[in-house]
Amino acid sequence: MKKVVKLVSILLALMVFVVGCSADTEKKSEEKNTSKQDGSQYINLTMIKPTTINPILNNDKSVSYVLNLVYDSLFEFDENYNLQPKLVDSYNISSNNKSIDITLKDNIKWHNGQSLTASDVKYTYDLIKKNTDSSYYSLVSNISKISVNGSKNLTITFKDGYAFSLETLIFPIVSKDKLDNLKSDKLKLASNNLIGNGAYKIKTYEDRNYMLLELNKDYYDLDKNNNKKEVYVKMVPDNESQTEMVLSLDSDVSRVTLGSISKFVDNDNFVINKYQGRNYDYVLFNYDNEYLKNLDIRKAISFAVDRNSIIKDAYSNRAKLTNFPLNSTSVYYDNELKPLSYNTENANNYLKKAVLSLSKTDDNKEKDTTDDKDNTDEEKTEADDKATNNKENTSDKKDDKKDSKDNKKGRYFKDVTNSEVRALLKDVTFKIIVNKNNSERVKAATIISNNLEAIGIKTEIKDLEDDEMTKALDKKDYDLALIGCELPAVSDATYIIKQLGYDDKQLDKYLNALQNANSEDEIKSTYKTLQKYVKEKAIFISFGILDDYVVLNGRLDGELICNDFNVYRGINTIKIK
């Protein structure tokens, strides 16, 4: 594939912030707790003690969430993970995806009253390029240069054409006037980073203690329903402290992990905002296994696995069932595509088909068929087995016989006996590996094992420690692996699909077409084809996107518009009861 694939592999790591800080030697009793004393006056937040509040140099996600209130970016993702202009008034993408002309909004001002200009954007890009450890460095790796064409106009030129280049322009813009010519150590000082361009201004900053934000009355996008409340941000040593401060009512709002959310359920003191995160869980097939190279075997497994039960019983309904590594709210996700849903009759029928296809003499290779034929076979078999439509069933049965006939033996899959299936599976035991420290996936592995045993496929589950799991994946010492990843910041699933290990020229063709699409409509069309193909080939088993949570103190009235990039969006409209 083209050089752009290298870009996507870098983008996968985008926005994975390093969470940590230096040891906290202060006693909690000695820390100023303004939030508890003045709780009615402020909306109280927390963040881990920052090493810097320069948004380009910060590498802590909790700090980034707060700084999103102070700094805006050219574009941002909305609550559905779809891109929206922020500081941008208009833009035009070249036909080869190699440049973007941007016009900034006229009414953008820094918190000191100066106008934000195209030079600030260029300076921000240059600052990121100089700091390779910046969380935003991956975003600008494909940018060749930024040309300033007046105070509000700029042209961004890219090294390679890439369909998702616009989505990489989500880094916060900092002030050239305040930071230019400062040495690296000075760039990190809080005193040099008190001027932003966002909805909130930094009113007070006390190092390693707290930060006080006030609403920016001159903000270009100020909501008329704003609450005018100041935001008090307490600095704490770690994520656990953030959760504990919400529980003790010392903090009003905090992002809470899946493992901690049970502490807040059924507690009238709190309101839980649930939103779709970017952590994605799925099952990986080992294509070194000759059985798993067979399409019929993979479809049998796919139909046998009860994904709804996994979401309900393993994930406690705290995940969104999806069929592809995209947020289900994305404009590129195909919600109309019918998945390979749990159906033991279909699973058993595909095992019978596997008896025929694996008995062929062409080195047991999976017979490749056209996209439409594969799709027709699967959908018609399912319709036939369910007998939901007489007319459809009649034609399906004919097509089933046509598509399922073994040309050499003149047999149909329905002629295959159960004893032949048992003979096929007699020496087959699939090894399922899972990280023992992930309780949801461990439960999911048990459900999958039971599902496969129910259709006659033997399994063994290996619960592994972190390092053991990594080694097993590297050595491909598994048949099925329950794993997870963070979706990349851009809406490009190419890297994840490539990591599935399915070697297929047609798949590569679709992925290449996706990355080189020249319009949103072309991306949508290509994604639709790609998602259909991945389903037809049963390339992997998708569980879904894990839910994320923000907990609000019950004294607040309103709802945040969250996504994984910005958990405090809409806080300026939250009221205090």
From TrEMBL:
Residues 361-373, 383-410 have a biased composition (Basic and acidic residues). Keywords: Signal, Transport. InterPro entries: Peptide/Ni-bd, SBP_5, SBP_5_dom. Residues 361-410 are annotated as: Disordered. GO terms for cellular component: ATP-binding cassette (ABC) transporter complex; periplasmic space. PROSITE patterns: PROKAR_LIPOPROTEIN. Residues 83-484 form the Solute-binding protein family domain. It holds the Pfam family SBP_bac_5. Gene3D superfamilies: Dipeptide-binding Protein, Domain 1, Dipeptide-binding Protein, Domain 3, Periplasmic binding protein-like II. One of its GO terms (molecular function) is peptide transmembrane transporter activity. Residues 1-23 form the signal peptide. One of its GO terms (biological process) is peptide transport. Belongs to the bacterial solute-binding protein 5 family. PANTHER family: OLIGOPEPTIDE-BINDING PROTEIN APPA, PERIPLASMIC BINDING COMPONENT OF ABC TRANSPORTER. This is Dipeptide-binding protein DppE. It comes from Intestinibacter bartlettii.
